[in-house]
UniProtKB/TrEMBL annotation:
<dbReference type="GO" id="GO:0007015">
    <property type="term" value="P:actin filament organization"/>
</dbReference>
<dbReference type="Pfam" id="PF11841">
    <property type="entry name" value="ELMO_ARM"/>
</dbReference>
<dbReference type="Pfam" id="PF16457">
    <property type="entry name" value="PH_12"/>
</dbReference>
<dbReference type="GO" id="GO:0017124">
    <property type="term" value="F:SH3 domain binding"/>
</dbReference>
<dbReference type="InterPro" id="IPR050868">
    <property type="entry name" value="ELMO_domain-containing"/>
</dbReference>
<keyword id="KW-0729">SH3-binding</keyword>
<dbReference type="Pfam" id="PF04727">
    <property type="entry name" value="ELMO_CED12"/>
</dbReference>
<comment type="function">
    <text>Involved in cytoskeletal rearrangements required for phagocytosis of apoptotic cells and cell motility. Acts in association with DOCK1 and CRK. Was initially proposed to be required in complex with DOCK1 to activate Rac Rho small GTPases. May enhance the guanine nucleotide exchange factor (GEF) activity of DOCK1.</text>
</comment>
<keyword id="KW-0581">Phagocytosis</keyword>
<feature type="domain" description="ELMO">
    <location>
        <begin position="307"/>
        <end position="480"/>
    </location>
</feature>
<dbReference type="InterPro" id="IPR001849">
    <property type="entry name" value="PH_domain"/>
</dbReference>
<dbReference type="GO" id="GO:0006915">
    <property type="term" value="P:apoptotic process"/>
</dbReference>
<dbReference type="InterPro" id="IPR011993">
    <property type="entry name" value="PH-like_dom_sf"/>
</dbReference>
<keyword id="KW-0053">Apoptosis</keyword>
<dbReference type="InterPro" id="IPR016024">
    <property type="entry name" value="ARM-type_fold"/>
</dbReference>
<dbReference type="GO" id="GO:0048870">
    <property type="term" value="P:cell motility"/>
</dbReference>
<dbReference type="GO" id="GO:0006909">
    <property type="term" value="P:phagocytosis"/>
</dbReference>
């Protein structure tokens, strides 16, 4: 008979004593449980003791978290958090250097626990840490433990970052700016500043003033990968907290210092593999940089702006330079206006008498004009060739440069997600972005020439404009999905993917669809589905058994807390626990926490998850909601909360958990995998029917013969 839900069987250890095996009554007050344990070992003053997990993070057991204790858990009897906090509070003020260092080391370890942190902070312990940093000149082990303890204590959000003194902040900044200081201290200092920057405008301005971009670039060029990562984290925090004008100035300065080229050469193409966190920071840097185009994209052209009109006129003058050189006095005003209108029509403007009207649509707004001007000034030969080549074609077959440029700019903005907020978890960046300054403009220059090339291949007329732009969008997206490492490689590949190749790809996809829509094939699909769905279920469970590394994302965007979760090989228990950076696949024995599959009650996703409801800031990024899921266990009272690293992992984990719960797999990945497997299986089964049309209806069954005398009688043959 299974034990009641409010009783768990556990072991309790104590140094120098034989462990106790007890049945913990969850309804019994924790103070009474502690007294019974202490009495069994003849220990007085039970109130001075507490229970703590023996493995993993060694969290203290309290009334609020005691329900997390599972059958088979190993606890340890230790000094209570208030007693330990008092002891360490005294220890860090000791005149004895060894005692002080040991106390700070212990403090750094225990501060991860929320109960201990609350007790230590309530004793004004942070004030002592401030004084150690502000008054001390030590830059060795003691300081490293102090900064680590401070970081962990602040992580619990009991104290506002705005309470920090200017002296303390400048001391932290000095460690970042020093040359002769241990790398671990610089890493911790960078981490503290990174957490500080988003909390208030005042702190942002102070850090931005004290830690120069040059200094951050120096750390980015360090050989220490962890120091490089923390420097990048602070740079990203500064960029995200800056105003639009400040961000633009910072990005301009980083461009002058060739940051992109350094990243392209020394980080993306480094001999070391790129970590998830660095990939995320590179994605954010790319997104922030591209979003600098947002203002121009959303600004319509002002026909009364002389500057904008001059840019527009420069397009006409560059294209028709020889014609524009005729003296103004040679023509009347009316004749000159007529000539300008004719030239703007040749440039491909719809409203040739007032071309500014074409640029009133936002997006793409003035960004389209910027792109056209960049193309005309930086590749004048290609620009003149495009315009003049189309001027000499028949009216219906000319490719309109201006109209194409406006539509292409809009397409590129949509593909590159310009104007959209940064994701908190995404890691997808384009390596070629970091290999080129003026990336967006250079990409436009390649793609506008692609438009002209595709237009000619399609022998298009003005009525085919939308069709041509659809093909161009497809050419760009298909090529970008290959993640080319440079714009040159992108140019080569996108030009190889010509209109005939696009037609072949479309035809292949269409034929495949037609094949799979025949009635007999549909019947065969339905017959194969159960077997293939079982195969997908097994794959999902196998993925859960291999496990996944998850990150804890707090309100301050920190992503350096890692934990691992995996399913036992017998599919009966989920094991999980905190791990250190760099651990790829920890063994099940090293994961202290566990949830029996039989105790799992429900799977929650998205907005239903408790950890997404907790974030009430209103800035909740939609991608976090799309990656969040929770397992409800133990009578719907407790949840294990996840934020998947990618949408792919989200699909595999939610499918696997649904399989364990005996429910249908509901993710979009299931349908994709099923379609792929069905397609492969159908192709194999229909291999012998190639080029044979499959009828919609089965052939009629012939009538039975009038007699069966043609059957051979084997009995006569034997005689």
């Amino acid at each position: 008979m299974p034990p009641p839900k409010d009783v768990v069987k556990i072991a309790i250890q104590m140094v120098g004593a034989i462990p106790q095996l007890i049945e913990l009554q969850q309804t019994k007050p924790l103070a009474s449980v502690l007294k019974d344990v202490c009495d069994a070992w003849s220990l007085p003053n039970a109130e001075r003791y507490a229970l703590q997990y023996a493995d993993g993070r060694q969290t203290y057991i309290t009334e609020s978290n005691r329900r997390d204790i599972k059958n088979g858990s190993i606890l340890r009897l230790t000094t209570s958090p208030d007693q330990e906090a008092e002891r360490l509070y005294v220890g860090i003020q000791s005149k004895n250097v060894d005692v002080k260092t040991d106390s700070l080391k212990k403090l750094a370890s225990l501060s991860q626990d929320v109960t201990f942190a609350q007790e230590f902070i309530s004793r004004n312990g942070l004030k002592q840490i401030y004084s150690i940093v502000e008054e001390g000149n030590d830059t060795g082990e003691m300081l490293a433990h102090t900064l680590k303890a401070f970081t962990e204590l602040m992580e619990h959000d009991f104290v506002s970052w705005e309470n920090l003194s200017t002296v303390f902040i400048k001391k932290i900044v000095s460690y970042v700016n020093m040359n002769a200081v241990d790398a671990s201290i610089q890493q911790l200092s960078l981490c503290i500043l990174e957490n500080m920057v988003p909390t208030s405008r005042l702190l942002f301005e102070l850090v931005k003033k004290e830690v120069t971009l040059d200094r951050l670039l120096t750390h980015l060029q360090a050989t220490n990968a962890e120091l490089q990562l923390k420097a990048m984290a602070l740079l990203i925090a500064l960029l995200l907290s800056a105003t639009d004008a400040e961000r633009r100035d910072m990005m301009d300065y980083l461009r002058e210092k060739n940051l992109r080229q350094f990243i392209h050469k020394n980080i993306i193409h480094s001999s070391e593999p790129l970590g998830d966190e660095m990939a995320h920071y590179l994605y954010v840097l790319q997104s922030v940089s591209l979003n600098l185009c947002e203002h121009r994209m959303k600004t319509s052209m002002d026909p009364y702006s002389q500057e904008q009109r001059d840019l527009l006129q420069s397009l006409r003058e560059t294209a028709f330079e020889s014609e524009s050189e005729v003296p103004a006095g040679s023509f009347s005003t009316e004749r000159r206006r007529s000539l300008c209108a004719k030239e703007f029509r040749k440039l491909g403007f719809v409203n040739n008498s007032n071309p500014a009207e074409d640029l009133r649509r936002a997006p793409p707004g003035l960004l389209a004009l910027d792109n056209m001007v960049y193309f005309s000034r930086n590749t004048p030969n290609a620009y003149s060739r495009f315009v003049l080549e189309n001027s000499s074609r028949e009216d219906k077959h000319e490719c309109p440069f201006a109209r194409s440029s406006i539509q292409l700019t809009l397409i590129l903005c949509e593909i590159l997600h310009i104007g959209e907020p940064c994701s908190e978890t995404a890691q997808a960046f384009y390596p070629m972005f970091f290999g080129q300054d003026h990336f967006f403009e250079e990409l436009f220059c390649i793609c506008i020439q692609l438009v002209n090339k595709t237009w000619k291949e399609m022998r298009a007329t003005q009525e085919d404009f939308e069709k041509v732009m659809q093909v161009v969008r497809e050419q760009i997206t298909r090529t970008l999905s290959l993640k080319p490492t440079s714009l040159e490689l992108f140019k080569t590949r996108v030009n190889t993917l010509n209109y005939s190749e696009i037609l072949k790809l479309r035809q292949t996809e269409r034929l495949h669809q037609e094949e799979t829509l025949a009635v007999p094939v549909l019947e065969l699909r339905e017959k194969l589905k159960p077997e293939l769905l079982e195969l997908i279920r097994q794959q999902r469970l196998l993925h859960l058994c291999e496990g996944t590394l998850f990150r804890k994302i707090s309100s301050r965007r920190r992503q350096d807390k890692l934990w691992y979760c995996r399913l036992s090989p017998n599919h009966k228990v989920l094991h999980y626990g905190d791990v250190e950076e760099g651990v790829q696949s920890p063994p099940i024995e090293s994961l202290p926490e566990k949830i029996p599959v039989v105790d799992m009650k429900m799977l929650l996703v998205g907005k239903e998850c408790p950890h997404t409801k907790e974030k009430s800031s209103g800035k909740q990024n939609k991608d976090v909601l799309e990656l969040a899921f929770s397992i409800v266990h133990d009578m719907e009272e407790y949840c294990l909360n996840f934020i998947a690293p990618t949408r792919y992992e989200f699909c595999l984990w939610t499918d696997g958990l649904n399989v364990l719960l005996g429910k249908e797999m509901t993710s979009e990945r299931t349908q994709t995998d099923l379609d792929v497997l069905l397609s492969m299986e159908l192709k194999l089964r229909l291999l012998d029917l190639e080029n044979i049309s499959i009828p919609d209806n089965p052939p009629p069954v012939p009538k039975p013969p009038s007699n069966l005398n043609f059957c051979y009688d084997f009995s006569h043959a034997e005689q």
